[in-house]
Amino acid sequence: MIIMNFERIKLIVGDNGSRFPYCTTLFIEDDVTVVVDPGAGERQMRALKQNSPVDVVINTHYHFDHIYLNYLFDEAEIWINTEEANCFRDKWEIARRLGMYEVYGPAWVEQWIERVADPRTPLSPYSPMNRHEWWLSTSRVDREYGPGEVLDFGRTRAEVIGAPGHTRGFCYLYFPEQGVVYAPDVDLTPFGPWYGGSDGSIDLFLASARRLIDLEARHFITGHEKGVLTREEFVPRLEKYLDVIDQRDERILQMIREPATVEQVTREGPIYGKKYLVDPWIYMWAYLMVEKHLERLVMTGRAMKAGDKYIAK
Predict the structure, then answer these.
(1) Are 141 and 82 in contact (CB under 8 A)?
(2) CATH number at residue 89
(3) Residue 18 lies in a domain
(4) Pick from 273, 236, 268: which is nearest to 252 by CA?
(5) How many angstroms separate the CA atoms of 14 and 222, rounded?
(6) Are 31 and 42 within 8 A, CB to CB?
(7) What per-residue confidence (pLDDT) applies to 76?
(8) How do residues 48-82 score in pLDDT, each as one tens digit?
(9) Which residues have C-beta within 8 Å of that of residue 251, sequence separation ≥ 6?
(10) Is residue 79 part of a domain?
């Protein structure tokens, strides 16, 4: 469903209101026809392909909800940022960045690669961990792009804004002539910022998100749920969204009044609810986010570490 046009830039709302594991997709009709982050849903992407030949598919980063329908566009070029291009050449790189290697080790990674290679693998309960599209949609990359580059599609130009934090290679696409920026995972959802992979960073997320305000954009497009916001709507909501990070700090600080390990804190569910931790990927992301917050509390002098346990000061 196309909800709004900005000249030649069209928004396609993802299934279930663009909630994870779907996202809002951009469709650019110009001399070069472009799909950005084809995660809106299979029905919509198949219809788009049928109605309009697509020259280029651009992924803002390697996460499943933004790349999983790449494989449908078999005649288009696949572009991704240089930092993460190796994810499309070596599935071990996905495992290293998402956190599988760090949390579960190399044998688990080998098993995961075998699982996604097989379309008959049962799905996991809350995450896209075992989806076969991982295998299909990370099979090739035709071009890499980098921060500061201007992507020219004819009458539409997109400036690539490097925005590490959500992932190391995460990028915004800024369309200066239209006064529009696509900031896919600065999504302003109640859940708050996500930096759960091994390549995620709280401090970098904060810095990158606040860079958005410096752009001369009149409209901000999020990849999930919120969709299009004016500058007057976006700026105050951004600070509220980033405040979730401090709220997580406080919640975790309360949990380490007595010494506790990362695992013990994670099992209490300060990031995701406890029921979701049965999914190995949800647990993995929760573990890594808790660990990042604990290290942040130590760095700011609010907690200390003794052995493998943390305790509030």
Answers:
(1) no
(2) 3.60.15.10
(3) yes
(4) 268
(5) 11
(6) no
(7) 98
(8) 999 999 999 999 999 999 999 999 999 999 999 99
(9) 270
(10) yes
- The answer to whether 275 and 226 are in contact (CB under 8 A) is no
Number of domains the chain is built from: 1
Give the span between the Cα atoms of 280 and 76, in whole angstroms: 34
Strands 77-81 and 171-175, by their bridges, are unpaired
pLDDT in tens, 148-157: 999 999 999 9
Nearest to 28 by CA among 46, 55, 67: 55
Q: Quote the domain boundaries for residue 27.
A: 2-233
| 10: β partners | 5, 27
| Residue position matching structure tokens 């690539």 | 160
Other CB atoms within 10 Å distance of the CB of residue 128? 17
Question: Quick one: which of 81, 43, 44, 75 has its CA closest to 59?
Answer: 81
DSSP result, 3-67: EEEETTEEEEPPHHHH-TT---EEEE-SSS-EEES--S-HHHHHHHHHHS---EEEESS--HHHH
Q: How far is CA 233 from CA 63, 99, 133, 194, in A?
A: 27, 34, 35, 21
* CB-CB contact of 129 with 280 (8 Å): yes
- Other CB atoms within a 10 A radius of the CB of residue 75 amount to 8
Q: For 154, left (φ over 0), alpha (ψ -120 to 50), or beta?
A: left
